[in-house]
Amino acid sequence: MRESSDDNLFLFCRVGNRACALPLGSVVETMRPLPIETVADVPSFVRGVAIIRGAPVPVVDAAALVGSESAGAAGRFVTVRAAGRVVALEVSSVSGIGRLSAEALTDLPPLFGARDPELLEAVAVVDRELVMALALARVVPPSAWESIARAKEAS
Questions:
Q1: Distance between terminal CA atoms of the chain?
Q2: Pick from 149, 154, 153, 155: which is nearest to 57 by CA?
Q3: N or C: where does the chain have the smaller number of CB atoms within 10 Å of the terminal CB?
């Protein structure tokens, strides 16, 4: 019998009208949305900062990342570790945890429609639906982290 690996466990969520998969090893927690304070000089997909567990955390509109129409107000925040920092992703809903085998994940076709193709790691088909696996390390660009740090110092 083959041992299972946590590398192929994902948290599945809805992001606007699309299905996404987040590597479970990067997920910190899911929660109800919290108030967001806007921050100047950040990309449009960075909605601002929320205070989560006493620390300012950037909130990213995941629908804008994957080129999906936003479904309105976020249903959940999913906090993830991205390049050693915590980021909150605004998602419509969380579906559950499941496995995606390496064979199921394929490279992205060109012109996939994401804001930045490097933010999407791979795609898979699950129950006849296209699921996008996000590359979390690239979710918040360095310039946005700098703007958030300046806003924190100013407050």
A1: 56
A2: 149
A3: N
Structure-token match 């490279």, residue found: 107
15-31 b/e with 16+ CB inside 10 Å = b?
Answer: bbebbbbbbbebbeebe
pTM value?
0.79
CA dist 49 and 154 (Å) reads 14
Token pair for residue 106?
A: 């394929």
pLDDT band, very low/low/confident/very high, at 58 (cuts 50, 70, 90): very high
Tokens 């925040």 belong to which residue?
A: 77
Instruction: For residue 88, give the nearest of 153, 40, 142, 22 by alpha carbon.
Output: 22
Residue percentage of the chain with pLDDT more than 70: 74
DSSP state, residue 103:
T
Q: CA 7, CA 9: separation in Å to the nearest integer?
A: 6
Identify residue 17 by its one-letter amino acid code: N
